[in-house]
Amino acid sequence: MFETILDEEERGQVGIGTLIVFIAMVLVAAIAAGVLINTAGFLQTQAEATGQESTSQVSDRLQIVSQSGTFNQSEGQMSNLSFVVAQSPGSDNIDLSETSVEMIGADGQESFQIGDEDNATIDIFTNDDLSVVLTDNSERAQINILLNDPIDSSDEIGYELQEGDRLSVTFTAPSGASTTSEIRVPSTVVEDSVRL
C-alpha cells in the first residue's frame, strides 16, 4: 500500500515541500485575518457614527410649549409671533442661534436661521449664563419673530399673516431634527394679543 522510499535525499525533499506549502497557508490565513479584523473595526466605527447621527436626528429637537402672536388692528395682520420652546426628552444641548425656521403659508415660503436674522430674537428666561443654548429639559426659551413692523420695516420679514390665514412653522435644530407647528389666525380678531 505504501511505497517505501529508500533514497534519503528524496525523503527530505518531500518534507521541505510540505513545509513550504504549510508556511504559505499560514501566511495567507494571517493576511486574510488581518484584513477581516481591519474591515470589522472600520465597519464598527462607521456603524457607531451612523447610530449617533440617527439618534440625534430623532431626539435632538425642540418641543413647542406655547405659541402666541400680536395682531396689529390698524394693519389688519399679525405683527409678530412668539414661541416658547424647550428641549424634547432625551435631547442633547440645542443651540438656538443655529436653529433654522421655515414658514409656509398663504404668503409663500420664508426660511432663515434664527441667529442670522435681526427679526428673530431669543430670550432664555430660565438660564443664568445668558447663552442661547438649551442645556436642560427644565429650561424654556422664547423665540420672537417679527413679521411686520409699522415703524421700521428694515427689521421685519415682510410676511403677511391676516385673519383666517394658516401658517406652518418648522423649527430645525442643528442636528437636523425638526418640529412643526400649525398656526391658525382666528377669522375675527378682537384683541391685540392672540393665542394661536
Automatic annotation (TrEMBL):
Keywords: Archaeal flagellum, Cell projection, Cilium, Flagellum, Membrane, Transmembrane, Transmembrane helix. The keyword rRNA-binding does not apply. One of its GO terms (cellular component) is archaeal-type flagellum. It is found in: Archaeal flagellum. One of its GO terms (molecular function) is structural molecule activity. One of its GO terms (biological process) is archaeal or bacterial-type flagellum-dependent cell motility. The keyword Transmembrane applies. Its main location: other. The chain crosses the membrane at residues 16-37. Flagellin is the subunit protein which polymerizes to form the filaments of archaeal flagella. PANTHER family: FLAGELLIN B1. Belongs to the archaeal flagellin family. This is Flagellin.
